[in-house]
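Chapter review: from sequence to fold.
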Amino acid sequence: MDNETFNLKELLNYFDNSRKNIDGIILDVYELEKEFTPIKKGKEELSKRHLELLSKDWNFSNWWIMPEITEEDLIKLKGKFIDLDSQCKEVIEDLFDIIKNIEIVSCILRFIDPENYAILSSPVENLLNIRGISPIDKYLFYLRDLTELKIKYDFDQIAKVDMSLWTLTNIINHENLRHQPEFNSIYEKYSQSTNPVKKIMTRNSLLKIKDETPLYKADLLLESDPRLAGILASIEMEVIVDNFCNKNNIKIFVRKGFRKRWLSMSDKLDKLKFKKVIKKDDIEDIEHWWDIRCKLVHGNETKKEIAEVPTIINGVMKLKSEYNSEN
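The token string follows.
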């Protein structure tokens, strides 16, 4: 299916309808926006009245509990929101110091400045696999991801990107929505296409483990993508064999003129077998696993080879431990 088939921006048209279909579990964004946006224009300061309006929205209490905040606390924020910059870490930190909850902070900022801020909620956070160690870092990464989608899909507000993503998460997570023709069509377009939302989700997931070894990644990917897991484990297996060759003065390539010809796995194992530096059973296992690896790489694997991937991963882990291979 064409990558442009799925258009996130179109989901904004279904925001109100999807909300009704799941009992309206979302804030009254339109009314709250009216009350909060004068703060950015400098016509009002953030006050207890605004926080009470937020707290009184009955859907707010489904998600959060507003802490006790005094007017004295809010004085520290005087003038901070006038012509607020996008992704302003200083303001986010100042507000977080008082509120102590990044999701409530995100609500406040979203209603003050919907063009540049959005609500950080669990459904959308989980959809995009948002990165970040601290709450503030997580929110900043979230805003950057939404900015990317804003540009990709030509939104005029970050908040609208969030609203569209929220609609998408509910279509994905609620069967009663997916079974309705209009929502089922959206779901099919999303699930059957490579699109910017999925790319961000995948990038965030992989960046969390980018510094791990191929073997560790293989173990993590085993359930979701056993073929890729098997290929990654094989990378680690080849590293182990090459390291063992180097430790035992076995050259893993031969020169022919100005060119190098790298030894095949079979040749390397024959030389290791001749030197009797690896157990015979381990040599046989590696030969068998390498045969499976070649089928996985070329897409010729059967269910039988896929079923052996966990054995390969565990076996390579054992080899790594037993022969104390580095890397």
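Two observations follow directly from the output. The chain has 19 helices and two strands. The mean pLDDT is 89.
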